Please model this.
Amino acid sequence: VNDGGLYEKARKRFGPDEAMLVKPYMMAEDFSNYQRRIPGLYTFIGIGEGEDTPPLHASCFEFNEQALLNGVEYFLRVTDFE
Model:
């Protein structure tokens, strides 16, 4: 469960063309264990180029390095370090 305050901060800082709310997923992540101690906001940055993108761990997957810059921008905007 995402922290409500962090969610509201992110929602206010990103327009409808920059972000969307996605349905909950049961992921194989330990993120919820971190959130027991500190507030968290699980976010999908997006590294795919459409429906034809191979799965993340496929041998033919090619990483779009722009996603790294998008991730940095996201964290700067959400954490007040602009």
User: Anything to note?
Assistant: Helices lie at 4-13, 31-35, 66-78. The chain has a mean pLDDT of 83. The longest helix spans residues 66-78.
